[in-house]
Amino acid sequence: MAGGDKNIWIVANWKSNKTIAEALEWIGQVGPQIPKAEWLKVVVCPTFSALSEVKKAITVGNFPILVGSQDLSPFGNGAYTGEESAQNLKELISLTILGHSERRQNFAENDEIVGRKLQKANESGILPLVCVQSTQTPVPSGCGLVAYEPSFAIGTGNPDTPENADELAKLLKGSYGEGLEVLYGGSVNSGNVNNFIIQEYLSGVLVGGASLDAAEFTKICKIVGERV
Ligand code: 13P
After folding, report:
1. Where is the signal peptide (predicted)?
2. Is residue 154 exposed (0-12), middle (13-18) or buried (19+ Cβ within 10 Å)?
3. Which residue's alpha carbon is nearest to atom 5 within ligand 1?
4. What is the helix (H) or strand (E) element at residue 217, kind and residue range?
5. Backbone angles phi, psi at 18, to 5 degrees
6. 92 and 52 Cβ atoms separated by less than 8 Å
7. Domains and CATH numbers, the chain
8. Which of 43, 63, 170, 222 could share a disulfide with 11, CB 3.0–4.6 Å?
9. Rounded to two decimals, what is the model's pTM?
10. What pLDDT score does 5 carry?
11. Contact in structure between 2 and 8 (CB atoms under 8 Å)
12. Residue 156's CB: how many other CB atoms inside 10 A?
C-alpha cells in the first residue's frame, strides 16, 4: 500500500472551468481507468453548474470517484441569494474545498468565514478540505483534512519541494494532532506527483491545472495507484 496504512487523496480542483459537456467527456475518459483501492481516494471538484451531471455520470458508471464542491455557503437555507447551502449540496457531494487562496484573494474569504463554512459542512456530513497557505493560516477546530497550498506554487509550474511540503505537514500535525491528514497543492503533475506521495507526513495532492486534462489526470492516478 502507498505510504503504509494511510489514505492517499488525489483531489481535482477544476476551478472555474469546463462546460457540462466537457465535464462529462472527462468523466467518461477518466472514470473507467481509475485504480480501485480502499486507500485511494480520488475526488473531482467541478463547478456548481456541472455538479449534478457529474454526480449522475459517476453513479451510473460506478466509478471510484467522489464528488466535491469548491465552496459552500456559510449560511443555511433561506434568503441568501446566490448561495449554495450544505443542506442542498449534501445529496451531490462528499467533500468541499474551503478557504482556497483564490477565494481569500478575490472574494474576501477570511478565517472567520472559513470556520462558519466548515461548521455548515460538518453539520451536513460533508468533509471539509481547508486550504492553508502556511503554518500562519489557522486550521479551524473540527477540521480533519487540510491542503498546504503556498501561493507561489499555484498555477506557476513552480511547486514547493516535497521535503518542504512534508515539513509543513509534520508541523501541522504537531500543532493540530496526528490524525490531521495533510495534502500538498501547487503545480502538481504526473512528473512530480510521486515525489509528494512518498513523503512520510503527506496524505496526497490537490491538483489544479493538471486535473483539467483527462489523460494527464488519469496518469497521475495510475502512478499513485501503482504504489502498492
Ligand atoms: P495548480 O495545480 O494549477 O498549481 O493549482 C493548484 C490549486 O490551486 C489546487 O487547488
Report:
1. none
2. buried
3. 208
4. helix 214-225
5. 85, 125
6. yes
7. 8-225 (3.20.20.70)
8. 43
9. 0.97
10. 78
11. yes
12. 12
Residue 176 main-chain phi, psi, to 5 deg: -115, 0
Among the listed residues 73, 69, 118, the one whose alpha carbon sits nearest the alpha carbon of residue 97: 69
Q: Which of 132, 149, 156, 158 gets mutated to test ligand 1 (max ligand atoms within 8 A of its CB)?
A: 149
DSSP state of 132: E
DSSP 156: S
Comparing C-alpha atoms, which of 54, 39, 61 is closest to residue 94? 54
178 is catalytic: no
Using one digit for the tens of pLDDT, what is the confidence trace for 172-225?
999 999 999 999 999 999 999 999 999 999 999 999 999 999 999 999 999 999
The torsion of the CA quartet 199, 114, 221, 173, rounded to 10 degrees, works out to 20
Interatomic CA distance for residues 221 and 210, integer angstroms: 12
Q: Which of 9, 11, 13 to mutate to test the pocket of ligand 1 (most atoms within 8 A of CB)?
A: 13
Closest CA to 47 of 74, 81, 9, 84: 84
**127 Cα to the center of ligand 1, angstroms:** 19
Instruction: Please name the residue whose Cα sits nearest to atom 9 of ligand 1.
Output: 208
User: Is 130 near ligand 1, meaning CB less than 6 Å away?
Assistant: no
Alpha-carbon distance of 51 to 89, in angstroms, equals 9
